[in-house]
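CO-FOLDING WORKSHEET

Operator: S.A.
Ligand of interest: NDP
Run index: 284
Mode: holo prediction, single chain
Checklist:
[x] sequence pasted
[x] SMILES validated
[ ] output reviewed
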Amino acid sequence: MTDTSASPVTSGATSDTTSDTTSDETSAAAPPAPLRVAVLGAGGRMGRQTVAALDAADDLRVVARLGRGDDLAALLAAVDRPDVVVDFTVPDVTLAHVLTCVAARVHVVVGTTGWDDAALDRVRAALADAPGTGVVVAPNFALSAVLTMHVAALAAPWFESVEVVELHHPDKLDAPSGTARHTAAAIAAARAAAGVGPSPDATVHATDGARGADVDGVRVHAVRLRGLVAHEEVLLGNPGEQLTIRTDTFDRSSFMPGVLLAVRQVGSRPGLTVGLEHLLGLVP
Ligand SMILES: NC(=O)C1=CN([C@@H]2O[C@H](COP(=O)(O)OP(=O)(O)OC[C@H]3O[C@@H](n4cnc5c(N)ncnc54)[C@H](OP(=O)(O)O)[C@@H]3O)[C@@H](O)[C@H]2O)C=CC1
Ligand SMILES: O=C(O)C1=N[C@H](C(=O)O)C[C@H](O)C1
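OUTPUT RECEIVED:
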């Protein structure tokens, strides 16, 4: 539901940062107006956490909280529209949300997973007609997860075998997780660049699914278990040795520094950015 108490129309625009005084000294010290942010999926697990994190930041202001059935296009057509939209909804609708924002030339930060190359290509095509607009799609905003993916890609060419195991709460809609897909893609790219072939696997008899999903040639296994939040292991094997890289999110607060970083940076990153690693400077 749209939060009318803080909607673009009723929130009083920039009045909280506009000083009554005409003193040069005072106006020079005035902080910039907070970035105006709308949250899609605001009533969900991530949406609630995101609204709270934005509320706690002096330089960011939540101006709308949207859920299923709320009119995003109308919000973006308002005079006093948000600067940035954050999407934590469901895989079926996130592409449409992003295309609506790009058409209105409003920056978007996307945490929702379930993206594939075709959907990302549609965003790139839309952005070609919206110069200056930024979209950040990040499968995982937690630092430990981003570093797990980064280190896994560094290590992958040095091992014969590599497989990914992701473990999540059972209310999750998509499998494998967006993080696991992103991890597998990074591993596959690093191995291909180094001329390393597929992981050895002699399996000729297997029950469907027993060897997990094939993501870019990397086996990915998905566990759903009550009590878990979000976890991933990358297993790398050589004769006589194993490297395990593991990330554990015990609480969704782990995602918030990354979400706020993306909200602050998306306006200065025109085009499509996939992965928080780019915002952290881990990759160009
Ligand atoms: N990038 C990251 O770091 C992270 C990404 N995620 C991803 O974020 C997404 C959301 O996760 P989570 O918060 O746990 O899921 P939830 O199911 O808790 O929340 C999803 C929310 O989206 C709302 N919603 C559904 N359809 C629409 C719609 N058409 N328009 C607007 N809102 C809609 C739901 O409303 P209703 O209740 O009415 O259905 C619900 O409030 C998932 O894809 C998940 O994988 C999760 C954690 C971290
Ligand atoms: O649904 C979740 O919870 C999560 N989804 C993201 C994913 O699919 O990778 C990020 C994190 O793993 C939590």
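REVIEW:
DSSP finds eight helices and eleven strands in the chain.
The CA atoms of residues 160 and 238 lie 5 Å apart.
[x] output reviewed
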